[in-house]
Specification:
By secondary structure, chain A is an all-alpha fold. Helices cover 71% and strands 3% of the residues of chain A. In chain A, helix 9 crosses helix 10. The relative contact order of chain A is 0.18. By secondary structure, chain B is an alpha/beta fold. Chain B has 13 helices and 15 strands. Chain B is globular. Classes of the chains: A mainly alpha, B alpha/beta. The interface between A and B is large, with 49 and 41 residues.
Chain lengths: 313, 409
């Protein structure tokens, strides 16, 4: 019971963080069809900007201004880079964002050095929310979860209940028609890209204070965020929320489960043989918990190639 | 006219070495880009520091030592291609530190090169690859391992922690699932009887892939350990310690890489009271000028892998000085033989090479994070207070049987 509750809590919160970063990625893909390899770099930039701003002003200023700055960079990238090469097709966009990811990483190393920087949460947030089975549960984890939920609600309302959302969805579905009706579609795309980048920046600003802020953070989270988007269905916001939480919970549970293939085989009387063979058969699930998201992706791709909530099969 | 001048300059530059003696060429094949850049640069700068000191004192064989950096990009394929480049440039010595995987690649490349190129051998100085396999199965005459291994770190670590009353009798082992983590786990188990503790649980997890260590903390908490011993480095260590600290769990950490730059600042007050076993601590230098000199050279006091690397390369320069080629051709085999005899007296004890597997026999320092130390870490008020120096004889472990070294005739 204890394991169940703690693992679920840990998993859901981690899933929320994944969602914060992957929301922007899936939004950009859904609207513009651009698979943005530099997306996790926006997450990293958010953390570094927030670190700088929290030193100059305070943590809260960093939390609010850093995403705006990252969003501005996103806007510039869209306006002056992506838009120019859009007509050459997806391969070029992919290569451009791929290259940008490297450039951002090296720039961060250039300005902030190779080591993790000292970006920490303010003392006012650094306390135990409650005690579960003898261990403190840090409030900041809950804070991350709350911000993610607020973000999801805001996005959903913006997209489905406002006029801006209507135009954005229209521009996504039928860009030429939207343009013919007098809407500035390139401006919409620029806005979407900037918003997506800002969301990743917000994720970085929040998470960077809890996890170390270092030049590798984009690399580390980048892959997993892509897995989330693929599992959830490219372009589906709700899908990526479900996928994030699924991946978070699965990884969290995998850590505590010392299941092996040998154990499974012992059900059919082959346990002894499998123990003897060793290798992969005796590898406990807990030691490959980081692989769980990829396993999940494999299964989802086999069963539902479009992802959990993907519409275009 | 300018072209003629530069051509002349190039020509004289080319002729000059032919008249003079053969310079010693040192290739530093390090991770200068990619995710391990921070560590790679430290190995490079510590090695350069010692070699350039030697150059200031007149170089070697009548010529300045030629030191060149090669970027292996942090992976084995990069290391293999940079090794070929270094061979083409005529390197005599290869220095490398970050990553046992890259060390495995280079030591094999060196071994094969030396079999095929009698008379043009290369010496490999492994400054940081701690995998036991490198001194076991993969050992060979031209490879020297100037760093510690898992048993050399864990033994002193649990010894001092037990003496200080911080080890307790329930030890939790959490390590990364590759050769280094497995070596660590083995070492933690092997000292259990000597220092009277029980290994309550062992965990191996993936390397630098886990973002959230909270689930692991739930496991640690359930096992009720008194201390956690881990060989984790970089994010895996920082995230683990932060997650444990956030949960308010009262355990002491015994680590091997807590002194990596940025860790203390990131962990904050949480880092206090935890241990690290490392090859050197600048606070133990008898002459404070050493650390100041290094700071003048590199911009910071020697930390993390730097004290060990400085000692290792100094041992190498001892071996160089034992051979005088009188301005003639450099015989790498004679330098390698001299390495086996070399002995360096450092402020914390002697460093020498074990003839059977070329593992360095060196002292190990066990330090604890405290406030008010001589060299605070990362701009905080905390740093590593040396608790005890474990002598080379106490730190060393038996030669592995798998090492069968073929010596030159």
């Amino acid at each position: 019971m204890e394991f169940l509750i703690v693992s679920t809590m840990n998993g859901v919160i981690y899933g929320m963080l994944l969602f914060m970063v992957s929301a922007g990625l899936t939004l950009i893909f859904g609207m513009m069809g651009v698979l943005n390899f530099a997306h996790a770099s926006f997450y990293m930039l958010g953390a570094y900007f927030a670190y700088t701003l929290s030193g100059l002003f305070n943590f809260w200023v960093g939390l609010i201004v850093a995403p705006l700055l990252v969003g501005l960079i996103g806007v510039l990238v869209e306006r002056y880079m992506l838009r120019r090469i859009h007509r050459f097709g997806h391969a070029h966009e992919l290569l451009l964002t791929f290259g940008l990811a490297f450039i951002f990483e090296e720039l961060v190393k250039l300005f902030y050095g190779n080591y993790p920087v000292n970006y920490r949460m303010p003392d006012s947030l650094n306390f135990a929310a409650f005690n579960v089975f003898g261990a403190d549960y840090p409030f900041y984890r809950i804070f991350i979860g709350l911000i993610a939920v607020a973000m999801f609600a805001l996005l959903l309302i913006l997209l489905t209940r406002t006029r801006i959302g209507l135009v954005v969805r229209g521009a996504e579905r039928l860009p030429q028609m939207a343009q013919a009706l007098g809407h500035n579609v390139p401006l919409v795309f620029m806005g979407v890209f900037g918003t997506g980048a800002a969301l990743a920046g917000l994720g970085g600003a929040v998470a960077g204070a809890f996890f170390p802020t270092n030049p590798n953070m984009a690399l580390e989270l980048g892959v997993i965020v892509f897995v989330v988007v693929v599992v959830g269905g490219l372009g589906s916001l709700a899908g990526s929320l479900i996928a994030s939480v699924l991946i978070g919970v699965f990884s969290s549970f995998a850590v505590g489960l010392h299941w092996t293939l040998a154990g499974a085989l012992s059900w059919v009387g082959l346990g002894g043989w499998a123990e003897g063979v060793g290798g992969l058969l005796t590898l406990p699930l807990s030691s490959i918990s980081g692989t769980v998201p990829f396993l999940l992706m494999l299964i989802v791709l086999l069963v539902r190639p479009a992802g959990l909530m993907g519409s275009k099969n | 006219m300018r072209h003629a001048l530069s051509a002349l300059a190039i020509a004289t530059g080319l002729i000059a070495p032919a008249i003079h003696a053969e310079p010693l060429k040192v290739a530093i094949i390090e991770s200068l880009s990619g995710s391990q850049t921070s560590t790679g640069r430290m190995y490079s700068s510590a090695a350069r520091y010692v070699l350039e000191q030697m150059n200031e004192q007149g170089g070697y064989n009548g010529e300045p030592i030629q030191i060149k950096d090669y970027d292996n990009g942090g992976n084995t394929s990069g290391a293999a291609s940079q090794f070929r480049q270094a061979v083409a440039d005529g390197a005599h010595v290869i220095i490398q530190g970050s990553s046992s995987a890259v060390a495995g690649q280079i030591t094999e490349d060196v071994r094969k090169h030396n079999i095929r190129n009698k008379g043009n051998e290369i010496v490999y100085l492994n400054m940081g690859g701690e995998a036991l396999e490198l001194r076991g199965d993969k050992c060979h005459f031209h490879a020297f391992h100037l760093t510690t291994t898992a048993p050399m770190r864990v033994g002193p670590l649990v010894k001092v922690m037990a003496q200080e009353g911080d080890l307790g009798d329930r030890v939790y082992s959490i390590n990364q699932a590759y050769s280094w983590g497995q070596d660590m786990e083995q070492a933690i188990k092997s000292y259990a009887d000597t220092y009277d503790y029980e290994v309550v649980e062992t965990v191996l997890h993936e390397v630098n892939r886990i973002q959230d260590f909270a689930p692991f903390v739930a496991q640690i908490q359930a096992a009720k350990p008194s201390s956690v011993i881990t060989g984790n480095w970089s994010n895996d260590l920082l995230l683990l310690m932060k997650a444990v600290g956030d949960s308010g769990l009262d355990v002491t950490f015994g680590t091997t890489f807590l002194d990596q730059v940025g860790n203390v600042a990131n962990a904050g007050k949480m880092a206090l009271g935890h241990y690290v076993a490392h090859p050197g601590n600048a606070e133990l230098n008898k002459d404070p000028q050493d650390a100041e000199d290094y700071k003048a050279f590199s911009g910071h006091y020697p930390v993390y892998v730097e004290p060990g690397t400085i000692n290792g390369i100094r041992l190498f320069t001892e071996a160089l000085r034992a051979n005088d080629f009188k301005g003639g051709d450099i015989d790498v085999n004679r330098i390698a033989l001299a390495m086996e005899q070399a002995r360096l007296e450092t402020d914390i004890g002697p460093v020498s090479i074990r003839r059977e597997d070329h593992q360095a026999i060196m002292p190990v320092v066990v330090s604890r994070v405290e406030q008010g130390v001589k060299y605070p870490a990362d701009g905080t008020d905390m740093g590593f207070k040396p608790i005890q120096v474990v002598s080379p004889e106490d730190a060393i472990y038996p030669v592995q049987e798998s090492c069968r070294m073929r010596r030159p005739d």
